[in-house]
């Protein structure tokens, strides 16, 4: 009797298990986009308050919210265009003290099946990265600690059929090297929405008079060697990179095969080169500030400050190069031109000489979404020129919604566009320049109200033009792009130990660097195996 | 009629427990089994057969964690049972006279986890008492918490913390053995070993089994101390299955999490079944 009962229970369990599982439907080449049939529908979005917005600490300090910014107006547009659709937004608290607990609860909910339709997420890039570094536990927890790894775990739906058939989106205008980062085999699981990379801005006149050879800047190692071997160190100022360095290394790992690709010797060599570079930068700047005690700050001129009248030359004979991210390129180039500088702009290439980028924002449809076509319909808006470059979304009834960022800090809501460079790179330079031009015209109008003529720095700016030809490397595209993740924080800890051992401590020896690198690789192996 | 009414009353009495077990154990267990055979999220779970099991079995970190856990159980359980049994036998005659002694054995068990970890750090950390002592004697320095010796430290911590609890369980069984059986054995000229083998052991199987199960449960609870000592990725020798499960959860890989849980359950059930079958055969249990 007991054996019979046990057998029946086991059979029941197996039947229940197998009956509740479905086989995956076959992948389609293309699929029709969502058509609004008038039936009520809801899109649930899981996002961050600093999505499509400023850094977390700024959002927290200003009590700002992405809903006040661009994302809110995109939602307003969609709901106005489709009155039967409701967009619900959920985000985890931005407060560092409670975020960890809330994040755990959210992960449990996700594991339990309470998944949204859409994920709209920033990565651990730029300001958000630095936020993570300041956190007590050393990590600013995200829902997905590693988006590239999450792609292999079945969290996201394949939107390739919709994307491939979406002729209106003009996907040929998107940077293919960046968009490919969101693909796994033939599936398109994540849509990158913004990216960034480090650039070197060089004063062309000074460069031609110097021994700096562009051909020697073919990869990271040769760039560092060449700049340090020159007679003067001043070109080192062009290599003050953003701090995120993993995109300068070869591919780290194969997430599908859970295999570590990065070799210890490559990482060690990279760290040694970075240390030499960091020491050179410190030495040069120390010497510069000793010779110029009146100088308060150096670095790239800031567009808003320039428009406000700050007199700061982009270049000087002692500072003939600037290192800055791609997202600031058009702004700084406009100032350089207005100040009469001829500029050469070179991307900082990785150790293999490739153009590699960090993705700043991404969106993905959840694999558990009950209405994938509708979710894709909303997500695709982020790839349109109106949203990528900041513009106006127009409904069929003529109602318009601006997609520029609205922030109380800035007077103009049009000028501050998506942090990160748009993946719709074709046309982005001209779109950005148009905004700068219009903003400069606004400043001119304001100035003419109180004076006979506008200040010369405004008229100088209005007299120049920035086009895609000024950034020729954009035509090359991107060789590879990656999603910054928790791994970047671990590497940052490692590189900080190597580059900045502390005032009292001795620099690490080669053996110590190798040992610490091995610890990092060990963490990476664990990360691959456990994710 | 009376029998069926009695049975109904019995079912009613256990129904809250059964309902709780169903809601909080059975249904989640079925869900875990489902997740282990699927991919996807939310309502879009797709059956993929045993691919997840193949992937986990080929996962180096899982095999490391699994191996360490089994190694820990293989070392800890016999040791704790032997130690607890020995202490319980020594205390058998004194147990009723010195009730405070039993309480003292429970102190390590009830000590907060953080307290135990602080104690371990004070003793075994780089700046701890033991390395300082070893250094003073000119002995080579050992990385007690970050090297292969960490396994021994964790084992020691487990034994220190949980032996007392097993002593109490075994002592509870020992005191139920009638004293006159030992007296009769003395009259027959039985030696101490003979008394232990023919009188004590047959009547202690159930208590031993009970103590073993609790020691097994406590062995898995040891993860809390290991986590506080070594973090999410401790030394390879103390990287346990719970680390793998915990970290897989952080990385939202519930397929791996589910598979690892199921495999662990199978092993624990196998150990339980073997020992339970063995105990059932023993005369004292039948009696």
Write the layout of secondary structure elements.
The complex is a heterodimer of chains A (531) and B (287).
Chain A: H1 2-20, E1 41-47, H2 56-61, H3 70-81, E2 85-91, H4 96-111, E3 118-122, H5 126-134, H6 147-151, H7 160-164, H8 176-179, E4 183-184, E5 187-188, E6 191-196, E7 198-203, H9 204-209, H10 220-229, E8 253-254, E9 259-260, H11 264-291, H12 303-307, E10 321-325, H13 329-338, E11 343-347, E12 356-365, H14 372-379, H15 385-388, E13 392-394, E14 400-402, E15 421-422, H16 428-450, H17 456-463, E16 480-482, H18 486-499, H19 510-530
Parallel strand pairs in A: 1-2, 1-3, 12-16
Antiparallel strand pairs in A: 3-12, 4-5, 6-12, 6-15, 7-10, 7-11, 8-9, 13-14
Chain B: H1 2-36, E1 38-41, E2 44-47, H2 51-57, H3 60-91, H4 99-110, H5 113-124, H6 129-136, H7 150-174, H8 179-187, H9 192-221, H10 223-230, H11 241-250, H12 254-281, H13 283-286
Antiparallel strand pairs in B: 1-2
Helical residues, percent of chain A? 40-55%
Low-confidence stretches of chain B: none
What is the number of helical segments of chain A per DSSP (H or I, 4+ residues)?
A: 19
Q: Taking all residues together, what is the mean pLDDT of chain B?
A: 87
Structural category of chain A = alpha+beta
For this entry, give a set of tags.
heterodimer; A: 531 residues; seven-stranded mixed beta sheet; 19 helices; globular; B: 287 residues; mainly alpha; 13 helices
């Amino acid at each position: 009797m007991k054996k019979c009962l046990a057998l029946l229970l086991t059979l029941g369990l197996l039947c229940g298990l197998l009956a509740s599982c479905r086989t995956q439907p076959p992948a389609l080449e293309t699929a029709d986009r969502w058509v609004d049939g008038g039936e009520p529908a809801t899109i649930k979005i899981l996002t961050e308050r600093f999505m499509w917005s400023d850094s977390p600490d700024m959002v927290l300090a200003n009590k700002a919210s992405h809903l006040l910014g661009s994302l809110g107006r995109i939602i307003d547009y969609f709901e106005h265009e489709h009155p039967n659709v409701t967009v619900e937004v959920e985000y985890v608290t931005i407060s560092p003290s409670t975020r960890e607990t809330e994040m755990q609860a959210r992960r449990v909910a996700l594991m339990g099946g309470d998944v949204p339709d859409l994920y709209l997420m920033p990565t651990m890039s730029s300001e958000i990265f630095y936020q993570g570094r300041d956190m007590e536990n050393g990590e600013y927890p995200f829902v997905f600690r590693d988006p590239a790894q999450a792609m292999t775990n079945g969290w996201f739906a394949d939107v390739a059929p919709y994307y491939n058939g979406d002729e209106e989106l003009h996907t040929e205008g998107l940077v293919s090297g960046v968009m490919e980062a969101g693909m796994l085999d033939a599936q398109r699981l994540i849509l990158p929405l913004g990216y960034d990379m480090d650039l070197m801005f060089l004063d062309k006149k000074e460069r031609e008079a110097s021994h700096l050879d562009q051909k020697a800047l073919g990869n990271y190692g040769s760039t560092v060697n060449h700049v340090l071997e020159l007679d003067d160190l001043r070109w080192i100022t062009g290599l003050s990179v953003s701090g995120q360095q993993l995109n300068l290394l070869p591919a780290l790992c194969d997430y599908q095969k859970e295999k570590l690709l990065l070799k210890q010797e490559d990482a060690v060599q990279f760290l040694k080169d970075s240390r030499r570079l960091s020491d050179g930068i410190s030495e040069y700047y120390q010497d510069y500030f000793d010779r110029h005690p009146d100088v308060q700050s150096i670095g790239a001129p800031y567009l808003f400050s320039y428009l406000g009248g700050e007199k700061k030359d982009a270049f000087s004979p002692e500072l003939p190069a600037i290192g800055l991210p791609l997202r600031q390129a058009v702004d700084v180039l406009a100032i350089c031109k207005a100040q009469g500088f001829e500029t050469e702009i070179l991307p900082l290439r990785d150790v293999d000489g490739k153009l590699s980028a960090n993705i700043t924002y991404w969106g993905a449809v959840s694999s558990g979404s009950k209405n994938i076509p509708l979710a894709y319909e909303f997500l695709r808006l982020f790839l349109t020129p109106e949203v990528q470059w900041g513009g106006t979304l127009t409904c069929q009834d003529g109602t318009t919604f601006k997609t520029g960022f609205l922030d109380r800090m800035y007077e103009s809501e049009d000028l501050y566009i998506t942090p990160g460079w748009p993946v719709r790179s074709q046309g982005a330079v001209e779109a950005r320049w148009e905004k700068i031009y219009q903003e400069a015209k606004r400043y001119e109008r304001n100035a003419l109200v109180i004076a006979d003529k506008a200040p010369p720095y405004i008229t100088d700016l209005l007299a120049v033009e920035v086009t895609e030809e000024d950034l020729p490397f954009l035509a090359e595209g991107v060789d590879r792009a990656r999603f910054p993740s928790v791994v970047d924080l671990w590497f940052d800890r490692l590189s900080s130990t190597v580059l900045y051992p502390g005032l009292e401590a001795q620099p690490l020896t080669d053996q110590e660097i190798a040992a610490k690198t091995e610890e990092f690789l060990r963490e990476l192996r664990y990360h691959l195996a456990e994710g | 009629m009376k029998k069926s009414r009695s049975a109904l009353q019995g079912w009613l009495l256990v129904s809250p427990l059964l309902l709780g077990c169903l809601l909080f154990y059975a249904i989640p267990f079925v869900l875990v089994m489902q997740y282990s055979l699927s991919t996807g999220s939310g309502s879009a779970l797709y059956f993929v057969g045993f691919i997840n099991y193949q992937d986990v079995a080929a996962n180096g970190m899982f095999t490391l964690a699994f191996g360490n856990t089994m190694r820990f159980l293989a070392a800890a359980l016999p040791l704790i049972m032997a130690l607890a049994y020995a202490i319980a036998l020594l205390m058998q005659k004194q147990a009723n006279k010195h009730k405070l002694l039993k309480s003292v054995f429970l102190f390590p068990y009830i000590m907060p986890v953080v307290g135990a970890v602080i104690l371990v750090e004070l003793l075994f950390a780089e700046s701890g008492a033991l390395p300082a002592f070893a250094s003073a004697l000119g002995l080579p320095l050992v990385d007690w918490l970050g090297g292969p010796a960490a396994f021994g430290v964790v084992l020691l911590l487990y034994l220190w913390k949980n032996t007392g609890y097993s002593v109490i369980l075994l002592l509870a069984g020992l005191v139920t053995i009638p004293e006159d059986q030992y007296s009769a054995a003395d009259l027959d000229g039985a030696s101490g070993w003979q008394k232990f083998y023919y009188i004590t052991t047959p009547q202690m199987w159930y208590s031993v089994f009970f103590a073993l199960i609790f020691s097994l449960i406590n062995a898995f609870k040891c993860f809390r101390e290991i986590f506080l000592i070594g973090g999410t990725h401790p030394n390879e020798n103390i990287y346990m299955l719970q680390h793998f499960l915990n970290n897989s959860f952080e990385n939202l890989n519930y397929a791996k999490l589910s598979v690892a849980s199921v495999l662990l359950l199978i092993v624990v059930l196998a150990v339980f079944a073997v020992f339970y079958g063995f105990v059932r055969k023993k005369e004292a249990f039948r009696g």
